[in-house]
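job 3f2a | input accepted
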Amino acid sequence: MACFVVPAAEGAAVKVIEQKAKKSGENTEACARRIERLGWLSKMLWGGSALLAFEHVWHGEVVPFFPFLSAMATPADAAAMFGEMATTGVAMAVVVTAAWGGLCAVANAIEQRAASEQAPALEV
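job 3f2a | predicted structure (124 res):
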């Protein structure tokens, strides 16, 4: 029904944080890396939300006229929609964020391995 709204809202919040971090003026390599990784999360959340929104349009759950969500037509349907947003939507946002965390961990491990291989060997 409207489960895509929760990851979209998280994506919007992440995009705001990313933009504020860009405007902070800090030009370190670590800051640039963090901003890039926030961009990854933002793209993952927005992409998933866009695909889900398209799927909901395809099935007639999102309509081009007010109230835009077919579940908002009756109070009983609205209650079910909010329940779906609270369960499915939040679960999807958590899973995407966890996948992003795993992706960041792997990227950090690869960067650390590359840095240790490039460090000059100490002679004893």
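job 3f2a | Helices lie at 5-23, 29-58, 75-118.
job 3f2a | closed
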